[in-house]
Amino acid sequence: MEPEAGAAETEEFMSVAAHDLRNPIAVVRASAQMAQRQVNRGDTEGVHARLKSIVDQTDRLTEMLESFLDAARITAGNLPMKPEHLDLRAVVEQAADRTRALLGEHIERSFEIDIPDGFIGAWDRTRIVRAVRALLSNAMIFGSPEAPVHVAAQRQGDRVRLQVSGGGSGPDAEETQHLFERFYRGRSAAEAGQSGSGLGLFTARGIARLHGGDVRHVEADTFEVELPLV
Question: Which residue among 18, 107, 150, 161 is least crowded, i.e. fewest CB within 10 A of its CB?
Fold first, then answer.
């Protein structure tokens, strides 16, 4: 990579990171200031609510930072992996819990998980949960508000295909060409009022490929992660 290209890439990455981190940092600061005032008034219940908000936003910040780092390491080709034997259903349930916590209560969607026990793979827990969470978040945000997020898996030989659908119309033809590009945010993201980094699908595909699998767009808003089994 030419030095000029590397510098431009770094600048773009830092610009996106700074933009995305600004909002949760502002929420943490505002919540802390409000908590201080509530302490002075003796409003214990109010303080507890503000502290919960601070913890939630701190978790969100941590996840965002880890995602930024993973994206940078994937690009550089040096993402470390610590595989262990994991059950796919347990991975999806952990990813679903994490998705609910990070997106907050303002997005009310349920999950329908149709995954038999016994789909075992040698995967890095943190990274594979992050990859699945990216697909679940995508379905929750851009799918139909009236439909549950459906997650199903099928074995094909020594591999498993996990499909995630939010019941929505999905990206248009133009967006489909760019879905897995770094920092890409399509029309649907702007219409949904989401200020994401555009790294979710890029990172999910990179993680899957490092495991010997892949992530692809199937149809409508259905995405699929394919992984090897043991």
Answer: 18
